[in-house]
Amino acid sequence: MLYQLSYTPAAQRPRISRWQRARQDAYRSQSETVRRHLMHAPVPETIPVDLLLRAYRSGIFPMADHRSDREVYWVEPRERAVIPLDEFHLSRSLCKLIRQERFRITCNCDFTAVIAACAQPREEHAESWISHQIEASYVALHRAGYAHSVEVWDDEKLVGGLYGVAFDRVFCGESMFSRADNSSKVALAWLVATMRVSGYALLDCQFMTRHLASMGAIEMPQAVYAKRLQSARGSPACNLPSTFDAANAHSSPGKFIVQSLTQTS
Question: Are residues 226 and 182 in the same domain?
């Protein structure tokens, strides 16, 4: 899913946020080491890149109460949702859609548009946890080379996508959006396929949803997740943007993605 800035440590906040109330049985605040480091930090416009990376490597991620929130809090889910890369559920209909190449898929072509779309209100959540401050922080993380977006295009129209944080052999999916049927599923399928080809080991989805469960996501205790993080240290064989470019260079990118998802490792 640490400090005083206007990022007050969750344990020290004077109120329980809406997100905390909704998730209070799902996660607990962490981490004392990072928290001590941040207690006397000045108030920045964005969360520093090195701090974000340190948090993710500790299994922690930021959220906010609403779009205009000037505070963030850090969460560590008790049960972590992950998609095992060798157990991604590719349905027949999704397989057919990818093979048909109805959509054009890119990586890092328009990160700012993807995160802005993900931050829009939804039927199930009137308020977005992606505050303007969080959005700016991840744009900075993207410019530093640690945050990537997957775009789904219908001609020149952006109809779906996702973004997340990449470090070591880990990708932490943050959010996705869909403006066309199954477009976010196509984005996720491409992500899983390119992670497999690139030599990644862990796809973190943070919180479980029915949508993710239908794609093969499972839950694991935080202690198990922490061990998985440690085992995923080191560099992948190739970075994700390069693998996306290589996939799109194939005569039939869709068939290449399906083959990458269905072949045994």
Answer: yes
